[in-house]
Amino acid sequence: MIISLLVLPFLGLAGGIAVGAGVVALFVVLDIIPRLAQLTRSYNRVHWYEGAMVTGSLFGTVADFWNLKFHAPWLISGFVGLLTGIFIGLLAAALTEVLNVLPILAKRMGMQQYLFFLLIAMVIGKVAGSWFDWFVYQP
Fold first, then answer.
1. Which of 84, 90, 119, 126 is the most exposed place for a label (fewest CB within 10 A)?
2. What SS3 state is found at 100?
3. Backbone phi, psi, residue 47, to 5°
4. Per-residue pLDDT at 1 exceeds 80
5. What is the mean pLDDT of residues 76-101?
6. Sign (positive/negative) of CA torsion 59, 60, 65, 66?
7. Cβ atoms within 10 A of the Cβ of 87, count?
8. What confidence category does residue 20 fall into, taking pLDDT thresholds of 50, 70 and 90?
9. Which residue has the higher pLDDT, 92 or 34?
């Protein structure tokens, strides 16, 4: 009993540190935040992006641990969802641009002249999948 009271918190803390370090390493190695600032032309707000990511991670962890739920009118929830989607989209765009995934994919598929349409199809598919998940799969 005493061993489990000492070992389980240690393992939980060690696992959390390992996962957090992996996420931070991904963001640092791939220069996600500076690239996001470059895409949005907001170099002077890099510290805001970093603070937002740390604060969001901390808030998400606390909300998950304590099973917090917030109920707001649909308009506020929609606005928060829109901002969240914009941030995730910008983050994905920065990651994609850093890795040059889309140009390589288009070149290998012989679709260089259709790169814009490939990007639009991916965006529409992501939006349609999100809507399906929100409105049909999890009503």
1. 84
2. coil
3. -65, -30
4. no
5. 78
6. positive
7. 15
8. confident
9. 34
pLDDT digits (tens, 9 = 90+) for 106-123: 788 788 888 788 778 878
Q: What is the DSSP string of 16-43?
A: HHHHHHHHHHHHHHTTHHHHHHHHHT-G
Sign, CA torsion 117/123/129/131: negative
Name which residue leads in pLDDT, 95 or 56. Answer: 56
Q: CA 95 → CA 29, 77, 134, distances in Å?
A: 11, 27, 25
Q: Supply 45's token pair.
A: 């707000």
Least confident piece of the model among 44-48, 56-60, 81-85, 101-105: 101-105
Q: How far apart (Å, rounded) are the C-alpha atoms in residues 127 and 129?
A: 5
Structure tokens at 106: 């288009």
Of 101, 98, 103, 97, nearest to 115 by C-alpha is 103
Q: What residue ranges in 19-58 does DSSP mark as E strands?
A: none
Indicate the SS3 state at residue 74: helix
Contact 47, 110 (CB under 8 A): no
Computed from CA positions of residues 120, 28, 31, 85, in that sequence, does the dihedral angle turn out positive or negative? Answer: positive
